[in-house]
Amino acid sequence: MKKIAIIGVGHMGGAILTGLAKTKKYQLLAENHVNKRVSQLTDKYNCQLVYSISDLAKLIPDLVVITTPAAATMEIVQKLTILNKDTIIVSAAAGHSLKDYQAKLAGYQIARCIPNIPVSVNSGLTGIYYPDDLAPAAKDFINEVFHDLGEVVEVAEEQLSIVGTIAGCGPAFVDVFMDALADSGVLNGLARELANQIAAGMVKGAAQLALDSHLHPALLKDQVCSPGGTTIKGVTSLEENGFRHAVIEAVNAANQN
Length: 257
Ligand SMILES: NC(=O)C1=CN([C@@H]2O[C@H](COP(=O)(O)OP(=O)(O)OC[C@H]3O[C@@H](n4cnc5c(N)ncnc54)[C@H](OP(=O)(O)O)[C@@H]3O)[C@@H](O)[C@H]2O)C=CC1
Ligand SMILES: O=C(O)[C@@H]1CCC=N1
Known about the structure:
With 257 residues, the chain is of the alpha/beta class.
């Protein structure tokens, strides 16, 4: 069984750990500060937790996934030179270029990715940048792991930021949308739980239809808007209130780093 280590078991690291645990394909390792939240999670998923990079190195992971805050990442990366040279490293931390990693980890196979939080339910979308000189076996293994967590989109490094903003930050934007939909349900007398269920189920179905049909979203929208009907009145209200502009501005705001 291949060993996968997560460094920094926060929201993202925990989501990856959770999704990978469900596959039962890998031996899972984790490194974090001493933290009850983390030990509870690693206990739940039978994942070996260590508190230092030197202890992690002794376990000889095949793949290390870095999910630490950007500000802490380079300090941690510096310590990774004690890992076995065959260890593949993939960083999910935003804010550092591949060159930054290569400068500190000469000779290692390294890639960058931006996953999203639905990896915890194996329905994620991960943008990955593979440098040209990455060994095919390393690329194949990273691909396999992130395919186990959902969809994978291979992108150039300069596209990783915007892909990561839409896919990585996007779940939060959709969550705000779902919460607002549920609020409107509650305003109209629905119980909160039912309103949440309806909002999430609707978003899931609309996304599935878009994926399965490959139709442009505008055409899908047209299918719902009956002439003179209720939906076009709602769409008109969204346009009047700058919904599209608000979404584009949100992505632009999040993409500034
Ligand atoms: N959240 C998301 O949806 C996504 C996040 N990312 C990226 O993932 C990274 C983490 O984000 P997120 O999970 O949201 O943040 P969190 O704050 O939830 O998690 C960070 C984790 O890293 C741990 N940590 C901090 N410093 C160290 C260290 N020196 N050594 C080991 N572990 C450390 C923290 O431990 P402790 O809490 O004990 O201090 C915590 O468990 C960021 O770089 C972010 O850009 C990328 C895509 C999506
Ligand atoms: O909020 C953040 O900075 C990270 C990057 C993508 C999603 N979460």
